[in-house]
Amino acid sequence: MQLSPTMQKYILHWGEMGTRWGVNRTVSQIHALLFLANRPLHAEEISETLSVARSNVSTSLKELQGWGLVKIQHLPQDRRDHFVAHQEVWDIFRTVLEERKRRELDPTLSVLRECSLEAENDPELEAATREKMDRVLVFLEMLMQAYADFKHLPPQTLQRFLKMGGKVAKLFGSDDAPAL
């Protein structure tokens, strides 16, 4: 597949973003390529286009499938697996958010809850330290409840909600709210 200079820039930046978020650069670049592609691509084509080892492409595609961001598509008269990325930006965002929550926040919440219970019987734990731990737990639980409240809203509703951000902040008296 021939990449335009703009596509190359986009894919390279997507890889950089991925590394900042703790995702392998190649995984992120393959996701960007499949997102931008207007047809399904097979692994060899991905490997050639990005100049990445075929084994690295296979591993990366498995990870992307595990995240639910890429799926296999079979084409008539071609026995190879072809791959496509989800194209709806809101679906991609929700998928990434849900996976990050499942892999990072859910285990953290479990440990924080255990620590909260154990803190009740820990005579060496200072009250101020316990209060700090509890504040983090309450914050994350509130954040996860907000996520649960909003995650099933249709994209159009979420877009309207996000566009209202400054207006809502001003309504609730934020000094940092932009003028209407």
From TrEMBL:
<protein>
    <recommendedName>
        <fullName>HTH-type transcriptional regulator</fullName>
    </recommendedName>
</protein>
<keyword id="KW-0805">Transcription regulation</keyword>
<dbReference type="InterPro" id="IPR000835">
    <property type="entry name" value="HTH_MarR-typ"/>
</dbReference>
<dbReference type="InterPro" id="IPR026282">
    <property type="entry name" value="MJ1563"/>
</dbReference>
<dbReference type="InterPro" id="IPR036388">
    <property type="entry name" value="WH-like_DNA-bd_sf"/>
</dbReference>
<dbReference type="GO" id="GO:0003677">
    <property type="term" value="F:DNA binding"/>
</dbReference>
<keyword id="KW-0804">Transcription</keyword>
<dbReference type="InterPro" id="IPR052362">
    <property type="entry name" value="HTH-GbsR_regulator"/>
</dbReference>
<dbReference type="InterPro" id="IPR036390">
    <property type="entry name" value="WH_DNA-bd_sf"/>
</dbReference>
<comment type="similarity">
    <text>Belongs to the GbsR family.</text>
</comment>
<dbReference type="GO" id="GO:0003700">
    <property type="term" value="F:DNA-binding transcription factor activity"/>
</dbReference>
<dbReference type="InterPro" id="IPR011991">
    <property type="entry name" value="ArsR-like_HTH"/>
</dbReference>
<keyword id="KW-0238">DNA-binding</keyword>
<dbReference type="Pfam" id="PF12802">
    <property type="entry name" value="MarR_2"/>
</dbReference>
<feature type="domain" description="HTH marR-type">
    <location>
        <begin position="22"/>
        <end position="80"/>
    </location>
</feature>
